[in-house]
């Protein structure tokens, strides 16, 4: 059982890696647009915003060139984009959009409505800082702002994962036990505009994998009328919110099933997170997105110097895999949690807050230091990650807020 | 990361530093390499100093931080050297390749970098003659391949031609001009 959980909750490459892969050159945005082409949604409603603009721009070309049968709706704002998506998904259409930063923030009201209606809308999200001051570069403030909205949230380390995650997001969201909207995110510019090697799977294989969409309900079916969006007061609101929570709980099982199925078909199995050198690690870095890739290099460099460092790259932030995560970290005495956003709770960043909460429930009390880093796209070098790991290992038990939360690389 | 080559391109907005990094990266992927190619996004506008980067390796590349110690620096516009420290982080055994009408010895007189592998080529003149426009980025790709042996020259040329043919479907003269420019810079770079 122990072993099964370990396998289930970690990602990694399986058998197919042995074969020679055919690589294409794609940026993160091109990779996500390619996934959308293969998914071929019924409807896409979107509004441009840096650095996600290209996703929809490229997809609009696919629509224009007749490569997809998607109804493409141009709208006057992201609020309208998500509103149109909600209308479309309510009628039973497979629906997608893409956005970033202020765009996601402008969707905020509608994000909750999409989740409350239990609509499996899929969104390609590019992580970018929020104003003010205005900044177009990567951090996770935008995504973290939506963490309580009822959306499933997948983080991607690179363009390949952005592509793989977006494909899986469709299956996860549409699963009858889940029925919640989902987004797959990439790091703005770092991944969205960086070109890398990526394996694009055959169209037919992707189409088979996502399958035909059979909506659980549609407003257009007059034989099965129902009400959507009615006032739901003291009598039933609570039950409906609780039901959405059940969908999120169920998503944990579904995400692992689909991650395994994806691995069997395409070669890389996805779980909640991926561990690197966790087994004997004396200090572990927990990171999201592209920083996890940079951390791989830092970990190897430290290992060469005899320091037992490890990495836990979290892929699934919603639902939060608390039980699996604390199990994977049970033997680790020192943890550096990397937050690329601040929650302004004057306590810790959003990721560290979640991890601490999970550790408390498990009765674990490792030395944990939270690093807030890279806001507004400030670079994080692998040598800095090495310093962070060494510093975390050597630090005493943090006694106050200043030693618990370190604002890394900021001029003070 | 062992055996990884990092290249930094310096140009001015509009000279094609980003395109050169992407074209080179794509050509390297075709030859079986692992690659990252990305521009630095700042307040770029026509004429302002810009940078772009390539990482090229035989193994998958997981680094996602900026390039701070490139092995190769390509300068698309020598006038940048008055306002940008183009040799920042470049080790003395690295390669510095400059688009200029001056010789390496002339350039040496006004830079602090002591490395031996300083090469020059008049890519702007070549581009004016072949593409009829000052687009030094593609000829500098040719010069770069001569200076580094990064990959097979003909493979790069073929891949770049293929991609330009897609982009300039109805303007074969642009494709041919660029191919000639790449070849000439490959032959003319002073090594």
Number of helices of chain A: 14
Strand order in space, largest sheet of chain A: 4-3-5-6-8-7-14
Question: In what order do the strands lie side by side in the largest sheet of chain B?
Answer: 2-3-1-4-5-6
Point out poorly predicted stretches of chain A. Answer: 1-10, 13-18
Strand content of the residues of chain A, in percent?
15-25%
| Count of the domains of chain A | 2
Comma- or semicolon-separated keywords:
heterodimer, A: 412 residues, alpha/beta, Rossmann fold, 2 domains, seven-stranded mixed sheet, six-stranded mixed sheet, 17 strands, disordered N terminus, B: 191 residues, Pyruvate-ferredoxin Oxidoreductase, domain 3, 6 helices, 37% helix, globular
Topology:
The complex is a heterodimer of chains A (412) and B (191).
Chain A: H1 2-9, E1 12-13, E2 24-27, H2 28-39, E3 43-46, H3 53-64, E4 71-74, H4 78-90, E5 95-100, H5 101-116, E6 122-127, H6 141-145, E7 152-155, H7 159-174, E8 182-187, E9 195-198, H8 203-210, H9 237-266, E10 268-269, E11 273-276, E12 283-288, H10 290-304, E13 309-314, E14 316-318, H11 322-328, E15 334-339, H12 350-362, E16 367-372, H13 382-394, H14 401-404, E17 405-407
Parallel strand pairs in A: 3-4, 3-5, 5-6, 6-8, 7-8, 12-13, 12-15, 15-16, 16-17
Antiparallel strand pairs in A: 1-10, 2-9, 7-14, 11-13
Helix pairs in contact in A: 2-3, 2-7, 4-5, 7-9, 10-13, 11-12
Chain B: E1 4-12, H1 17-30, E2 34-39, E3 49-57, E4 72-75, E5 95-99, H2 104-108, E6 117-121, H3 123-130, H4 137-148, H5 153-167, H6 172-188
Parallel strand pairs in B: 1-4, 4-5, 5-6
Antiparallel strand pairs in B: 1-3, 2-3
Helix pairs in contact in B: 1-4, 1-5, 3-4, 3-6, 4-6, 5-6
């Amino acid at each position: 059982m122990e072993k099964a959980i370990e396998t289930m909750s970690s990602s990694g490459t399986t058998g197919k890696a042995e074969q020679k892969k055919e690589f294409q050159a794609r940026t993160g945005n091109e990779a996500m647009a390619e996934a959308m082409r293969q998914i071929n949604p019924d409807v896409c409603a979107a509004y441009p915003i840096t650095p996600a603009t290209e996703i929809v721009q490229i997809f609009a070309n696919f629509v224009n060139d007749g490569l997809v049968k998607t109804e493409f709706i141009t709208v006057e704002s992201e609020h309208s984009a998500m509103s149109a998506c909600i209308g479309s998904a309510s009628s039973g259409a497979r629906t997608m959009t893409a956005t970033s930063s202020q765009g996601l923030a402008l969707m905020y009201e509608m994000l909750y409505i999409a989740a409350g209606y239990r609509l499996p809308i899929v969104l390609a999200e590019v992580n970018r800082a929020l104003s003010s001051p205005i900044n177009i570069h990567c951090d996770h403030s935008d995504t973290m702002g939506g963490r309580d909205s009822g959306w499933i949230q997948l983080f991607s380390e690179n363009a390949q994962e952005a592509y793989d995650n977006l494909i899986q997001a469709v299956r996860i969201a549409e699963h009858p036990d889940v029925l919640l909207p989902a987004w797959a995110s990439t790091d703005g510019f770092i991944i969205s505009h960086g070109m890398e090697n990526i394996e694009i799977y055959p169209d037919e294989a992707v189409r088979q994998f996502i399958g035909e969409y059979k909506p659980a309900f549609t407003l257009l079916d007059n034989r099965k009328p129902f009400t959507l969006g009615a006032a739901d007061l003291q009598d039933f609101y609570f039950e409906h919110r609780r039901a959405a929570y059940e969908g999120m709980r169920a998503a944990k099982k579904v995400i692992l099933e689909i991650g395994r199925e994806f691995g069997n078909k395409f070669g890389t199995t996805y779980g909640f997170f991926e561990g690197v050198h966790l087994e004997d690690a004396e200090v572990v870095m927990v990171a999201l997105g592209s920083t996890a890739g940079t951390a791989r290099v830092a970990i190897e460099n430290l290992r060469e110097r005899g320091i037992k460092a490890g990495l836990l790259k979290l892929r699934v932030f919603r639902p939060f895999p608390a039980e699996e995560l604390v199990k994977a970290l049970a033997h680790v005495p020192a943890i550096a949690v990397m937050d690329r956003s601040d929650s302004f709770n004057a306590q810790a960043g959003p990721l560290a807050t979640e991890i601490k909460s999970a550790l408390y429930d498990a009765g674990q009390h490792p030395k944990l230091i939270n690093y807030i880093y890279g806001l507004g796209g400030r670079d994080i070098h692998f040598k800095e990650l090495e310093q962070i790991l060494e510093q975390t290992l050597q630090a005493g038990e943090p006694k106050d807020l200043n030693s618990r939360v370190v604002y890394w690389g900021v001029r003070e | 990361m062992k055996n990884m080559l990092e290249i930094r391109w310096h140009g001015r907005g509009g000279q094609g530093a980003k395109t050169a990094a992407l074209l080179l990266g794509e050509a390297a992927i075709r030859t079986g390499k692992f690659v990252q190619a990305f521009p630095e996004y700042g307040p770029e506008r026509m004429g302002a100093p810009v940078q772009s980067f390539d990482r090229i390796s035989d193994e998958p590349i997981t680094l996602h931080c900026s390039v701070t110690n490139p092995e190769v620096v390509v300068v698309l516009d020598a006038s940048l050297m008055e306002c940008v420290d183009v040799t920042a982080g470049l080790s003395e055994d690295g390669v510095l390749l400059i688009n200029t009408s001056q010789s390496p010895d002339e350039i040496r007189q006004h830079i602090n970098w002591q490395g031996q592998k300083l090469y020059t080529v008049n890519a702007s003149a070549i581009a004016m003659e072949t593409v009829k426009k000052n687009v030094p980025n593609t000829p500098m790709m040719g010069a770069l391949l001569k200076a580094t042996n990064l990959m097979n020259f003909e493979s790069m040329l073929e891949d770049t031609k293929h991609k330009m043919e897609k982009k300039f479907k109805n303007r074969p003269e642009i494709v041919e001009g660029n191919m000639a420019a790449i070849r000439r810079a490959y032959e003319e770079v002073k090594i």
